[in-house]
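pinning this so it doesn't scroll away 📌
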Amino acid sequence: MKQFLRQLPAVHELQKDKRFLDLIEKHGTDTEHFTPIIKEVLNDIRKDIVNGKWNGPEPGNSLFIDKFLGLLDSAATERFDFTLKRVINATGTILHTNLGRARLSENAIRHVMDTARNYSNLEYKLNEGERGSRHSHVETLVKEVTGAEAAMVVNNNAAAVYLIMSALARTKEVIVSRGQLVEIGGSFRISSIMEESGAHLVEVGTTNKTHLYDYENAINDNTGMIMKVHTSNFKIYGFSKTVETEELAQLSSKHDHVVFYEDLGSGVLYDFSRHGIGDEPVVGDVLKMGADIVSFSGDKLLGGPQAGIIAGKKSLIDQLKKHQLARVVRVDKMTLAALEGTLMDYLKGEQGFLNIPTLRDLLVPLDELKDRSDRFIREINALNNGIIAVMAEGTSQVGGGTMPDVQLPTLLVTIRHPDISAEHIARKLRTEHSPAIVVRIQKEEVHIDLRTVTAEEESILLNAIKTI
């Protein structure tokens, strides 16, 4: 052991090797930033020698240097590799929270790239030659697609709730049905966000039933708001009752000091119920019903980037824009560009919004999925590598805490191997390929749902299956 430790080369000796300089060039760095990696690899080898775990060549010969440079290359690759990586989502869950939720449309992506690469008029009025507002870039589009008087954007819907509560109901009472005090992902609770804002929560009704008179009886001089929360991440069935938007709007209109705010969560701009998919309220319809102000997410059913979109009466939106928290929760130019690109797709009508991956994947015809799955199965079985692929009926999920009761009929490509477990196949697809591929496992079979796989990704997936 002592002899091996003495034979370990010094850092400055390794730096003289031409292959070391080649590695520096390969990884696009310099000696200063590469030297710590050399030290780390040497220290790891030294520990292995001391602990009797080193099974490589003896230090001091050319084979050791070859081995060391290979380890150095791997360590540098890991050091300079991104941890946020592209993933192929073959699960069929369209808004997969763990996989980044909504994919952006090509229009939105191009707009983000152009905005990121160049200077922009983020807060500058080109015609007037003076300072402008970043809110203006998407406000007009939100107004057009929802019918709102005014709008603004913050970094997510939880921030939107917090800003609205802080600006419009701080120290005042906010009436909410007990059945709508939801908890969203990451243990964030609507009630907790409200309390943090300084508003006083007033719960009415019961978990399963809330009546209009519950709200009426709770209104007093200190009431600042009636809030309705769309429980998009769960449903109550059976013996239940909620008060409709129109009724709450009419009630609040009788009291000048009471604002009616509806948190819509998912952010639906297109009526999916036309295709028999769910019963999500459309933002524009809720505003027409009389809501003073609404908020919703950008990266769920809207199909854009993470954002919290607030729309409603101009007098209320103006208060929010002037509030000190507006700067705390504001979004950057890339988010605005992505949202502007997405909303522009909506503005173009059906031809435009079908370019949005979330909507396209939700509405893809079953016949199209069958044709794609048939072809993909034939390609897999033609590999003759032991993998057996067959088609099976199944369901896709919307995901992202939206439409929890909706199961979209789909056709699954199920694969199995007589000698390799489904878990092993899934792990290989996930860890031994770039981009990583995430699949479902059920009944000892790997399930691939092409609903969330693009045509380009099919060929990548097929090449990955070849190696199993």
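📌 and the second one:
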Amino acid sequence: MEMLLIELDKNATIPLYEQIYDQIRLDITNGKLQVGRKLPSKRKLGEFLNVSQTTIELAYGQLTAEGFISTVPRKGFYVQAIEELAYVQPTGRIEETTKPKPDKIHIDLSPGHIDTDSFPFKQWRKYAKDVIDESSKDLLLLGDPHGDLPLRQEIARYLYHSRGVNCTPEQIIVGSGTEQLMPLVIRILGLDATYAIEDPGYPLTHHVFYHNNRKVFPIEVDQEGMDISMLQDSGATVAYLTPSHQFPTGTVLSAARRTALLNWATSHKNHYIIEDDYDSEFRYTGRPIPALQGMDKGDNVIYISTFSKSLMPSLRIAYMVLPGILLKRYKDAFIHYASTVPRLDQHILARFMADGQFSRHLNRMRTIYRRKLQTLIDAILPYTPHISYSGEEAGMHIMITVHVNRTEKELIESAKKVGIRIYGLNKYRKNPVENDPSFLIGFGGLTVDSIEKAIDDLMHAWEINKSDESI
């Protein structure tokens, strides 16, 4: 029997048994050791290589486990046939994929950013410490599929006092984001439902309808919100809209259109309204706009909201309030579903709300965002009439319209060149327009001190001078 030619480096960091394994495996895959060939015994190979039998046994054991060799009792080890190479030795460095160079952005005017500097870390840490304790070990198990009752009770109480929403905790479903809850709503509304959406509107939610192969009718938005007469003529059975602060224009659905919308919903038993109340906590002028759900007498409004703007986007906690008939459908369809939100996070938030910390945080953030909004408006005013703005009543962004002879794309590129990322309104439209380009200016993630310079730099990039200067 020929002995195996194996070179061992006893000073290497790779164990000896692994060196033996690697070389025998490579000889088998390369065909140097033919199928059926008998290998030296553990004792003979150990003596030949001057290593212990245990080392040979480890190498043979790994080769046997991976199917390269087999053992025949009282006869020895034999090379097995392999259908294909189980491993391929690398012949050189793996070339890294060339990544595109990121844009050098210094200011991001995203409407989705929040003021992370003002988050109540100390208070949140306290509740997290209280919840993450051995006394809460039951929270390691699955909870209520609709979300744990303490959180749903706090949400119901908060909605009644702040938004005029009439609901019981049983009607509330907690989920890990609007985009996770919406497909569930679509399924319980059935295959025959067709959807009216705002144009412009929130693209992520709109994609949900398209990805679920539902028929969609874009409905124009003007200064009073969604055009209800166009909705009535569309043939849609479900209207999805953001009535309290339309995204992205910032308009508020007028009282007359609210009434017309609710009348449309009650005109047919299969008509429903999906009310997305995404940032209703932040209103700066007048009294809070009551939710459509609280005005609904026909049980036709599905109310959806989230803690992304009020607390943090990464919390991934949203919720919906279902009318009675849809709640029954939901239970029948998703009785076996588990909640998608970790129970620990649910209970931290529930305690945070129960102790009044959530309300105090919102009051503090309204003051902060109101100051940022006023600073932003003060920075824009000198550039009128070349710039006009709207949507300043609520939320964390406004919309500006630029009255110059340039396209939206050109203005976006000009801003990018000076390190400013800005979001054009056509990004949110199904039917883009070219005249009077409009943009969203998010101020949530900006500091008060940076806002004026950001606007000045943006206007300079657009070659727009202040109104008392020549343009």
